[in-house]
Amino acid sequence: MVAPGCSCRKALRWRLPRKCHAIFFVTLTAALLAAAFPGASRSVCYDWDSYIHQVSALHTSIMDDVQCVGGYAYGAGYTSGLLIARITDPGAPVIVSQYSAPGARAVRVAGHHAYLVGSFGLQILDVGNPFVPTLIGSCPLTGGGTDVAVQGTTALVAANEGGTYIIDVSAPANPHVLGNIGTTTYACGVAFWPEDPVFIYIAEETRFVCAEISNPAHPIVIGILSPPDFLRGLAYADRKVYLLGIDALHVVDVSHVDAPVLLGSLANYGGYDAEIRDGIAYVGDWEDGLCLVDVTNPRQMRLISQVRSDLVESVGLSGDYVCAAGNSGLGLIDVRNPNAPLLGRCATPTAARQIAAVGSRAHVGRDHGMSVLDISDPRSPLALGQLSLPGYVRAIVASGHYALVGCDTGLEIVDVADPANPVLAAHFAAGDAYGLALDGDVLYVADHNDYLRIIDVTNPLLPIQTGSVRPGGGPGGLHTVAVHFPWAYVSGCIDSFFVIDVSNPAAAHVVGSIGGSAYYRMAARGDYVFTPGFVVINVADPAHPFEVASLPEGGGDVALTDDKAYVATGSGISVVDIADPVHPVHLGATYVNGDLWDLGLHEGLVLMANGGAGLAILPLRCEPAAAPEEAFDPRGATLIARPNPAWETVRLECRLATAANAQVDVFDIAGRRVRGILQEGMTAGPHEIIWDGRDDAGRRVPTGIYLIRLDIGDRRTATRVALLR
């Protein structure tokens, strides 16, 4: 039997089913761990792969549209035509065929047919065998085609200045136009009303149109709405049409097709394409990537999460994954848990640009000021004090009771002994202090005026410049500095990377350089310098530095642990394995709403200057709880718990080696049984079990760490999960 509020279903998984460690235990927040286990560090890590993340990509030519049906992704590309990829294993999609149709812009699949539109009009292909797509029929159209919808024996094609065509496709070998709805601008999106397909919806550049096509030869426009901005497409769900504007996402009530009503708009999240499911709009917005928007209340929509990627202009849903198409080809994004593994946030008066931490304090640089925050409880960081500064903040480092702030006016020394009342204690003329690196009592300043300044800050109130060097960074001067004594590494805005011998500050001098390269931020360790590009530079021979490896991570900052690099990517963080710096490996990424300017690693936490969103705190990334596939114990069972930590429900992905009677129970940290989830016979293979986060009485269990135990015959497995309320 399965307990109320829980479910168990046989589940087929991509790849060899992941081991479902029958007991699933998750790391919680530092404070929670400390409470549960005396002496535990607040240094925690989460399985970031339990959260929204891109799992794969097929780098092809530009793809303009995508639809996922029956384990295949069908992509339309202007230069390549129709591309078909098998996505039954989302982590390893495979291109199975390609049909040449230059000018293709959109595709829809219905039954065994693919309806492809583009500059050529409409083409209908037989895709019953996806490995051999075959042209059946075609229909040229004035204006070509930018979008297509199919219902029964009728197709709609948005054809730019040609308006919207109504096409009979009952005989795929002989599609023909039945009627047309003209446009005053450009038709860019079409959809049927599924409840009664004689009603259709059209997105034009400057208007939204509802029409009736019971007589296709004489369609009738019955409703018009003028949107607040220019439109690029539309999507339909639950008697609402979602208009994709240049500036915003708009939701229109079409319960009465002759009187469409604008319910609400969400600025900055328009896009080109969208799919709607379970109150979430999955919006493909190209520059902003994939945006997940909560649309349950159209008047109060909000961004849930975002995946920045140039893969995302068009989207399609396939189970737990979004198929994405864009500039780089096709990709798949895991959206089972749309949230980021965020621990806490704290707003700042203006956009957070820079960050540095000491002990339980974080110092956040903001435009023309700084904030001091208490991060002793990373779930609830608190603002302690604010201070306005005379210049625009470029960089910040912290030491003891002082924050050293690089500004376009020079170096500002701030006394934070009383964090609630930070005081500007001293100023030092250091030019335009664009980049800072603190090594013991020596501060290295990358002056935007093209100087590396070396400053003794043994007494922060009386800084002394002990040396400087002008490496010739080119127009724009120096941008960043990293130090691995006796070498300093600096880079300018344009085409410059220099290695400088700083063993004698008074005689600091350039010993090596790389021409044609510029880096915004850097971090140094041993014989290597890492940039957020992501580029690895070998500096073992300081006179001859050279790039040894790179990954397409992008981003604006980088921070290092012993074997990993955390890279700021604009809206989130990528993690790269640098155990072998010559062969870095992308491990995964997580996404955080808002812009990400700067990041720092501090006592097991990832601290982020999150632009207008203030300070954001994440845990470090750790490897998924599941062991490698090869380590699966054939005598027993495995189970993965996702997400971990969880906020409401916990999903257990379980695999049994053989059929057996299974029992799953939940215990609190004191060992008390709080819930029986399952007790029944289970077949061999993969299963999915859901715990709704409640006890046997149906009450929501409080925040805490819980043990989930799986008993199979004489074998027992257990693990822990953290619930956050």
Q: Give unreliable regions as ranges.
A: 1-43, 625-635
Strand proportion: over 45%
Shape: globular
- Number of DSSP-assigned strands: 65
CATH T-level fold name of one domain:
Methylamine Dehydrogenase, Chain H
CATH architecture assignment of one domain: 7 Propeller
Query: Which assembly state applies to the chains in this document?
Result: single chain
Helix content: under 10%
Number of helices: 1
Could you characterize what this model shows?
There is one protein chain. The protein has 725 residues and is mainly beta. Helix content is 1%, strand content 53%. It has 1 helix and 65 strands. Strands 2, 31, 56, 57 and 58 form a 5-stranded mixed β-sheet that branches. It has a 4-stranded antiparallel β-sheet with strand order 1-63-60-59, with no helix packed on it. Strands 3-30-29-28 form a 4-stranded antiparallel β-sheet, with no helix packed on it.
In short:
Among the domains are: 7-26 and 625-723, Immunoglobulin-like (Sandwich); 64-274, Methylamine Dehydrogenase, Chain H, CATH 2.130.10.10. It has 1 helix and 65 strands.
Defining key terms:
mainly beta, 1% helix, 725 residues, 53% strand, 5-stranded mixed β-sheet, Immunoglobulin-like, disordered N terminus, 1 helix, single chain, Methylamine Dehydrogenase, Chain H, globular
Q: Which SSEs are present, and which pair or pack?
A:
Elements: E1 7-10, H1 30-36, E2 45-46, E3 53-59, E4 65-69, E5 72-77, E6 81-86, E7 94-99, E8 104-110, E9 113-118, E10 121-126, E11 134-139, E12 147-151, E13 154-158, E14 164-168, E15 176-181, E16 187-192, E17 199-204, E18 208-212, E19 220-225, E20 231-237, E21 240-245, E22 248-253, E23 261-267, E24 273-277, E25 280-284, E26 290-294, E27 302-307, E28 314-318, E29 321-326, E30 329-334, E31 344-346, E32 352-358, E33 361-366, E34 369-374, E35 382-388, E36 393-399, E37 402-407, E38 410-415, E39 423-428, E40 433-439, E41 442-447, E42 451-456, E43 464-469, E44 478-484, E45 487-492, E46 496-501, E47 509-515, E48 523-525, E49 528-531, E50 535-538, E51 546-550, E52 557-560, E53 564-568, E54 572-577, E55 585-591, E56 598-602, E57 605-609, E58 615-621, E59 637-642, E60 650-656, E61 660-667, E62 673-682, E63 685-691, E64 704-712, E65 715-723
